[in-house]
Structures are given as C-alpha cells and as structure tokens.
Design brief:
two-stranded parallel sheet, alpha/beta, 7 helices, Rossmann fold, 6-stranded parallel β-sheet, single chain, binds NADP nicotinamide-adenine-dinucleotide phosphate
C-alpha cells in the first residue's frame, strides 16, 4: 500500500490529475508505478507507462493506453507532450523532461535532492511549467490516513489491485529488505505479520 499512498499523493494532491489529461509514468512496473497507472486511469487521464521489455504486458494489463520500452526508446526524445510526467523511479530529471511537458505541465519526482528543490522553487515563481518533489512518508499521519481510505475504497470496489512481487514472513524481514534493495521489482514486497495470508 505504501506505493499506492505515494501515487495518490503525487497524482491527486500535487498534480490534481483531470479527465482527458496526458499522464506519463516512468518506472511503471514498480510499487509506485503500478498504483500510479491505475490511479491516473481512474482519474480519467490518458496514460503512458515507461518500463522495460518484460514488464510491457503487466503495465498494459493495469490499463496503460500506451507503453514505452525504456530499453529501446527515451521518452524525453519522442516528441510527445504530457500534462504530467510522474518520475516514480526518479531516473530522469526536470531538465530532461521540461521539453516533454505541455505548457502548464508538471514534473513529479519521488527522490529528493538539491537540483529538484531548486527547480521546485524556481518554477513556482517563473514560467508555467512546474517541478515538484514530495515525501509522502513525512506527511502527517492524518493526511496519509485519508490517502489510505481513498485507495482502500478503490480496492474494495475492484477498481484497483495490488501487484505483489514477493511475500515474506516477518521472521525473514532481512531477506525482504535484501530483495527490495536489489531493485527491478514488479510491484511491491509484502511482509506478513502473524498468520495473515
Ligand atoms: N517521495 C515519496 O513519497 C516516496 C514514497 C515511496 C517511495 N519513494 C521512492 O520512490 C522510488 C520508487 O519506489 P518504488 O517502490 O516504486 O520502487 P520499485 O518498486 O523498486 O520500482 C522500481 C521500478 O523502476 C524501474 N526502473 C527503471 N530504471 C531502474 C533502475 N535503474 N534501477 C532499478 N529500477 C529501475 C524498474 O522497472 P523496469 O524493470 O520495468 O524498468 C522497477 O520495477 C524509490 O526511490 C523510493 O525510495 C518515494
């Protein structure tokens, strides 16, 4: 659910994705990306997912209208413009994506750093394009509780599903971390507490 809460924060709270907008999700097969594709579709956007070759089918199955294989194409170089570029994996940058943003487009980044903080400040004062970074985990619990409630409603209504890369029992927590740290996950890693299945 952590990925879904971050996806809700970025797409609803920060970019306020609207019906008919063009949204691109970079890192579409990861924990945040798999949730972001589904949420952006739920908000009525036309969605492009960027992932590696083996994940194309998964990303299409989540509802992406278009998939870009990042082992063959650079999405910043194909001449398309997006209202929202959600760099869920933070492998790109505002500078690289600026030319692929629509006039009022928003670049969203999950990983902080000096460059994105300065870009966020600069774009909040100059021009119409925006660069935004946010740390969902640092937001007040009351706020994250609202995100959780919204995502839970969608899951219970069958409008969203969790993609689970692997499940680990609590006693194998260290293995779960090692697995997650290897990267290139497909969805999220789940740690099971108690007998829950
Ligand atoms: N700011 C926030 O609120 C917030 C909240 C949670 C997490 N995060 C951060 O957001 C980032 C993404 O989190 P996540 O949980 O979605 O990650 P994840 O589940 O590990 O997703 C990684 C995905 O990104 C793709 N990818 C593309 N280039 C990659 C590369 N060079 N190395 C590894 N993977 C690459 C992979 O898909 P392909 O194989 O298809 O390319 C992989 O499936 C992490 O940096 C995490 O720390 C931020």
């Amino acid at each position: 659910m952590c990925g879904a809460l971050a996806a809700w924060n970025f797409l609803r709270e920060k970019a306020n994705v609207q019906v008919g907008q063009e949204v691109l999700v970079n890192g579409a097969s990861g924990a945040i990306g798999t949730a972001a594709i589904q949420l952006a579709k739920h908000f009525g956007a036309r969605v492009t997912g960027v992932c590696s070759t083996s994940e194309r089918e998964l990303v299409e199955s989540l509802g992406a209208d278009n998939v870009i294989d990042d082992t063959r194409e650079d999405f910043t170089n194909i001449g398309e413009a997006y209202d929202v570029i959600f760099d869920a994996e933070s492998t790109s940058s505002y500078r690289r994506c600026r030319g692929s943003l629509a006039e009022d487009g928003v670049y969203l980044r999950t990983f902080p750093g000096l460059a994105i903080l300065l870009e966020m400040l600069w774009t909040s004062r100059v021009g119409r394009k925006r660069a935004i970074v946010s740390a969902t985990g640092l937001m007040p619990i009351s706020k994250r509780r609202v995100f959780l409630d919204e995502v839970t409603k969608l899951v219970e209504a069958g409008k969203m599903r969790s993609i689970v890369d692997q499940r680990f029992p609590l006693e194998r927590l260290a293995d779960a971390y090692r697995h997650a740290e290897r990267g290139r996950l497909r969805g999220t890693v789940v740690v099971i507490v108690g007998d829950a299945r």
